[in-house]
TrEMBL record:
InterPro entries: TagF_C. It comes from the Bacteria. This is Uncharacterized protein.
Length: 547
């Protein structure tokens, strides 16, 4: 970047060293402290030393960032360099170097590049030929200073306890919790479960790739929403395409797979419970006061005196009956039980930005510019909804209690809920599910009544077809009946499921259903009387019918 071609004549240059996508996300919490200052030019480079460099350049390019080749960056003087990781030839950088954590402090062991020990605290990672490389080692809590002093005493004089800017943003965003919940598809009364996995074979995903899909098909889909937050290193190694394919059945079951580098913070603020492992996300969730259940807890992967090790020692492990355990853990949670541990998240709650800004501008030799703490943006994501589900109907005190489960459970018949019937939307792509549907749903037919007749003729095993019209929903049965639902306050297919279980003579003028614990009602008009008089028995689920 030649000065002679510059439009804005800046006074200082900051070199942002981006090891991988994970490090980039943490740098983006810090760079806004000075990025809007016209006196400062920020240049980005990638050392290429990380095993998870893949995807980093593409991630930066989406943000409109050009990456200076590492060799050129080493030759270019700067006033300050900032990194959110270690590795590579950082000792060759021609600028004072500030290194910040890219997670909840420093907890994990890492053996790489011939270095070992606690990543970010051991002498192997902090020194080169006996000299401490960073000019500033940023720590989030005083307890890290104690461990740093024990592991690399020569680095103590450059250590700065500056709090945690990422956690500060989560705390500042707590008033937006309901906005995040609605953006993530969480209805009133619904519980949000975040499934979080760090990277590596000992992680949650490495231990149980099918957990999200299995849990989604076991839980009432109207009482729970599941979001999966994966460490960016997973896609960096396996590729984003491959991870999407592995999670395809999760999406079909209504699980929201968050973009690896975005929205996990908002999900934690919105969550009612987190299923996790030894990664930072699980600890952040506990620090926000949310109950945490560990699916993987490899104590040997973290320093025994670290906060995460202490959390692993006391947090409950996932049991063989996760549905009951989830209900009990949420109901009985008391954040005070782990408060002594989670208080190690930050020594300076809410003020990390101020401390970091003052330090950065002091190294730049400029008067600081005030940068307000930024709340997390409301996510914009496409909410996946199952296009086929199993419905169980139980009549209690004049209302139909409808419990719905994603039909993906039919992939493992022994896990499929009993006493259910199969409801399939015409947008479902599985021929097997369509062929075995008890109820078929169409949201946008051109002619509802003609579609209902044709659909029931084409699927001999289908008992009811539900179609949306301009003036209500129409439900036709295989024995000639036709009704219209008006004034629905809940999902139309739930009313269809209730109708499916009713005898013809018992169809009321008003139908009440309860879905996900929430009551709904609709007016019912019989347009054509069916020939059937007896109630329809609950069928076995589709998989057992087809073998």
């Amino acid at each position: 970047m030649s000065v002679e071609w510059s439009t804005v004549r800046t006074e200082r240059t900051v070199l942002a060293i981006v090891h991988n996508t994970t490090a980039a996300t943490r740098l983006f919490d810090i760079l806004p402290l000075f990025a809007t200052d016209p006196r400062v030019q920020t240049i980005f480079t990638c050392p290429g030393s990380s095993a998870f460099t893949n995807g980093t350049h593409e991630y930066l390019a989406k943000a409109g960032i050009d990456v200076l080749p590492w060799a050129e960056a080493l030759e270019r003087p700067a006033d300050l360099a900032i990194a959110a990781s270690y590795g590579g030839d950082l000792h060759k950088v021609k600028a004072p170097l500030m290194v910040v954590p890219h997670g909840m402090g420093y907890n994990k062991y890492l053996d790489s590049e011939g270095r070992s020990g606690v990543f970010g605290l051991s002498a192997d990672w902090l020194t080169h030929e006996g000299r401490v490389v960073p000019s500033v080692v940023v720590l989030s809590h005083e307890e890290q200073l104690e461990r740093l002093t024990a592991a690399c005493p020569e680095a103590r004089e450059v250590a700065l306890v500056a709090g945690d800017p990422c956690f500060d943003r989560m705390l500042a965003s707590l008033p937006l919790r309901e906005a995040y919940r609605q953006a993530l598809g969480v209805d009133p009364g619904t519980k949000l479960i975040v499934i979080s996995s760090t990277w590596g074979g000992e992680s949650l995903l490495g231990n149980d790739l099918q957990l999200a899909q299995r849990l989604a098909t076991s839980l009432d889909m109207d009482a729970y929403r599941i979001a999966v937050a994966l460490h960016p290193n997973i896609s960096a190694h396996h590729s984003s395409w491959q991870v999407r394919m592995w999670l395809d059945h999760c999406r079909r079951a209504g699980v929201l797979a968050l973009p690896e580098e975005r929205f996990w913070c908002q999900a934690l603020v919105a969550a009612d419970l987190t299923l996790g492992d030894h990664g930072s996300v699980s600890f952040y969730s506990a620090a926000l006061g949310t109950p945490v259940i560990l699916v993987s807890a490899p104590a040997e992967a973290v320093a025994p005196d670290s906060p995460i090790a202490r959390l692993l020692a006391v947090a409950p492990r996932l049991t063989e009956d996760p549905v009951r355990q989830i209900e009990e853990v949420i109901a009985g949670h008391d954040p005070l039980r782990t408060a002594a541990i989670t208080s190690c998240t930050t020594s300076l709650p809410g003020t990390s930005g101020t401390v970091l800004s003052e330090t950065i501008y002091r190294h730049l030799g400029l008067d600081p510019v005030r940068a307000d703490l930024r709340v997390l943006p409301v996510p914009e994501v496409e909410i996946p909804e199952p296009r086929a589900h199993l419905a169980r109907v139980e009549f209690r005190r004049g209302e139909a209690v409808v419990t719905r489960f994603p039909a993906d459970s039919l992939r493992e018949p022994r896990r499929a809920p009993d006493r259910t019937h199969l409801v399939v939307d015409v947008r479902e792509t599985s021929a097997r599910l369509l062929d075995n549907a008890d109820i078929v749903v169409h949201h946008h037919p051109r002619d509802p009544e003609s579609w209902i007749s044709a659909q029931l003729r084409s699927l001999p095993g289908c008992a009811l077809a539900l179609a949306r019209g301009q003036d209500g929903w129409f439900a036709g049965t295989d024995d000639g009946g036709l009704v219209r639902f008006d004034g629905l306050t809940g999902p139309a297919d739930a009313f269809a499921s209730a109708l499916y279980q009713l005898p013809v003579g018992a169809i009321p003028g008003s139908l009440r259903v309860r879905v996900g614990g929430r009551p709904h009602q609709a007016r019912v008009t019989v347009l054509r009387t069916a020939r059937r008089a007896a109630p329809r028995p609950s069928p076995p689920h589709a998989e057992s019918r087809t073998g």
